[in-house]
Design brief:
Strand order of the largest sheet of chain A: 6-7-8-3-9-10
Number of helices of chain A: 7
Radius of gyration of chain A: 17 Å
Strand content of chain A: 25-35%
Number of domains of chain A: 2
CATH topology of the largest domain in chain A: Rossmann fold
CATH class of the largest domain in chain A: Alpha Beta
Oligomer: heterodimer
Number of helices of chain B: 14
Distance between the termini of chain B: 28 Å
Order of helices and strands of chain B: HHEEHEEHEEHEEHEHEEHEHHHHHH
Shape of chain A: globular
CATH superfamily of the largest domain in chain A: P-loop containing nucleotide triphosphate hydrolases
CATH architecture of the largest domain in chain A: 3-Layer(aba) Sandwich
Largest sheet of chain B: 10 strands, mixed
Number of strands of chain B: 12
Strand content of chain B: 15-25%
Order of helices and strands of chain A: EEEHEEHEHHHEHEHEE
Largest sheet of chain A: 6 strands, mixed
Helix content of chain B: 55-70%
Number of strands of chain A: 10
Structural class of chain A: alpha/beta
């Protein structure tokens, strides 16, 4: 079972989450309207789940908040500042956002600890510090004894935990998770969500999860339901 | 970053090996040609200083020093030039020894300074028609002794002596009278290949050369290896061949590396998009791809250097030119091959890097 351990470093305390404001965002892919004037607000350190049927625009919205895509119109601000253009968002992605993916997307040819270090290479952290930080994160997600295992040697839940540790490597203030339980069985999925919630409580970052999984909605402070590119309900 | 580069290069061993193999062949060709070219340059340099001459006179527009034809009527006028203390004609005959086509037969005036300075270890100078003195290296190679016969250009010559001069070109060849060499090379008695010239010790070589060129239009006076190389059209031809091979190796190697790296980045599209998403900048992704491309090309270059040295050593004997060309691997020659290897990696990475930096992370990361 995955468990949360470790001690929060002084640098991590007080980092806190950021507010996210989405205002009247429209996005189309050719003739298909993915988002049709979405507006929503997420408070700092809030855990929000966005749910809805396939094709409702959930992942597109998440990608735009993370600056992987730009809206056709409307505005998105994170911590009061507009989200930069995708081509100019390197610093934003390094310092502000952590991404968790459905299929964890670990590099298959390097071990768990090295996978976490890939996020630290981007910020120019030295090798020794990378090693220490990645070991600390592995301990935090309860996988210290799996540090030298390749992704193929880990269970689905463990892989997702490594993906989560990698997302936390640069101490993000906003964690974006796209179907984090999508490739896990129900038990592993619940454990992954438990880990995510616990880490949010510890680090205080804002968490936005896109998921079909009812368990993700149960963990959330608020749930937005998207249908056909618009917010249908907030719970 | 370095560990990622190494891991990626090792991921597809067969593809890396095939690409590196292609580069190795190109680099090996360059190394071999450069070392043979340098060897040929050295040979050309020896040609100038036959008989310890200060300079050699050749026909100005001869494609190659060995194809030069000079009139012997120059000789008396040359000897009257104040800067010149000695001059003797030399007829060079190529491929006259059937058993060793790379051996050169020299036709010299037997009282000239070139023939006079030969040290005989057995027998003596050729003093009669159809006599030849043989260099000790050629004698050893063909197991010749004084009194044996040696076939030159379809005629039998008697070995009158075996000599050593200390000049590889001469010691790997043979010397006969000027007239016999002219006959072997189908020349008239008034023609010679070159005139070896000795300059007065009190006169500078540059001044003497200038004076000779002024007095004898249509003649080139070659006093150092570089001039011999410039005068030799064959050497120039080899230089051009080297350039052509370099360009071909660059193009083919670049295409091979570009193809390999493009396949690699397309195959790892999601991985690279992931790195971009977690904060890797375009230059960082470019460095990763560039590092892999250079790693592959340097593996190929390493093998290419080794193969090239082996080829260069094996080629002259295989072509029967072992006596004529001694491959010479210079640090600059090997360095150039390394630079070409790096250039192949850099150029081959340009397009894949462009593709990587233009990939939309959102689309690349989309499941399925």
């Amino acid at each position: 079972m995955l468990e949360v351990r470790g001690v929060q470093s002084p640098q991590e305390r007080g980092t806190g989450g950021v507010a996210v404001e989405v205002h009247d965002v429209v996005k189309s892919f050719g003739p298909i309207a993915a988002l049709r004037g979405i507006s929503l607000t997420v408070a700092p350190s809030e855990f929000v789940t966005i749910t809805g049927p396939s094709g409702s625009g959930k992942s597109t919205l998440l990608n735009m908040i993370g600056s992987l895509e730009r809206p056709d119109s409307g505005t998105i601000t994170v911590d009061g500042a507009p989200v930069p253009e995708p081509s100019e968002a390197v610093q934003f992605r390094r310092e502000m956002v952590g991404f968790v993916f459905q299929d964890h997307l670990l590099l298959p040819y390097i071990d768990a600890q090295s996978n976490i270090e890939t996020a630290l290479i981007a910020t120019g952290v030295g090798a020794k510090e990378r090693r220490e930080r990645s070991a600390e994160l592995l301990a935090e997600v309860g996988l210290s004894d799996r540090a030298s295992h390749l992704p193929a040697e880990l269970s689905g839940g463990q892989r997702q935990a490594v993906g989560l540790a990698r997302a936390l490597a640069n101490r993000p203030r906003l964690l974006l998770a796209d179907e984090p339980t999508g490739s896990l069985d129900s038990v592993s999925g619940r454990r992954a969500l438990e880990l995510l919630a616990t880490l949010r409580e510890r680090h205080g970052m804002t968490v936005i999860v896109v998921s079909h999984d009812p368990a993700a909605s149960e963990r959330a402070d608020r749930v937005f339901t998207l249908t056909d590119g618009v917010v249908q309900a907030t719970a | 970053m370095f560990s990622l580069i190494v891991a990626n290069v090792r991921r597809r061993v067969a593809r890396t090996a095939l690409t590196a193999g292609g580069i190795a062949v190109g680099v090996a060709s360059i190394v071999a040609l450069l070392s043979l070219s340098t060897g040929l340059d050295n040979t050309a340099g020896q040609l100038v200083h036959l008989g310890r001459a200060d300079l050699g006179l050749f026909q100005a527009d001869a494609g190659d020093p060995t194809s030069s034809v000079l009139p012997l009527s120059l000789l008396p006028r040359l000897l009257r030039t104040p800067e010149v203390v000695g001059a003797t004609p030399l007829q060079l005959v190529i491929s006259a020894v059937p058993k060793d086509p790379s051996a050169v037969v020299f036709g010299a005036e037997l009282n000239g300074f070139v023939a006079q300075r030969l040290v005989y270890t057995a027998g003596g100078a050729p003093s009669a028609a159809a006599h030849v003195a043989v260099g000790d290296q050629l004698a050893s190679q063909l197991h010749l002794h004084v009194g044996d016969t040696l076939k030159l250009g379809g005629r039998q010559f008697v070995v009158s002596g075996i000599y050593n001069s200390g000049i590889a070109f001469e010691d790997q060849g043979a010397i006969t009278s000027l007239r016999e060499a002219q006959i072997l090379d189908n020349r008239t008695p008034d023609e010679t290949t070159t005139i070896a010239v000795r300059i007065a010790p009190t006169v500078s070589l540059a001044k003497a050369t200038k004076e000779i060129l002024k007095q004898f239009p249509g003649v080139s006076a070659i006093s150092d290896t570089d001039e011999a190389i410039r005068a030799g059209a064959n050497t120039e031809l080899i230089s051009k061949a080297v350039l052509l091979i370099v360009v071909l190796a660059l193009i083919i190697g670049t295409l091979a590396v570009a193809n390999t790296m493009l396949a690699a980045v397309l195959e790892r599209r999601r991985e690279l998009a992931l790195l971009s998403t977690i904060g890797w900048s375009g230059p960082q992704l470019g460095t990763l791809v560039l590092g892999e491309a250079i790693a592959v090309s340097m593996i190929g270059t390493g093998f290419g250097l080794a193969l090239g040295v082996l080829f260069a050593g094996a080629l002259p004997p295989a072509l029967g030119l072992g006596n004529f060309i001694t491959p010479d691997q210079t640090a600059w020659g090997l360095g150039r091959a390394c630079l070409i290897g790096v250039a192949i990696g850099v150029l081959g990475a340009v397009y894949p890097i462009w593709r990587v930096t233009r990939t939309s992370s959102a689309r690349a990361l989309a499941p399925g």
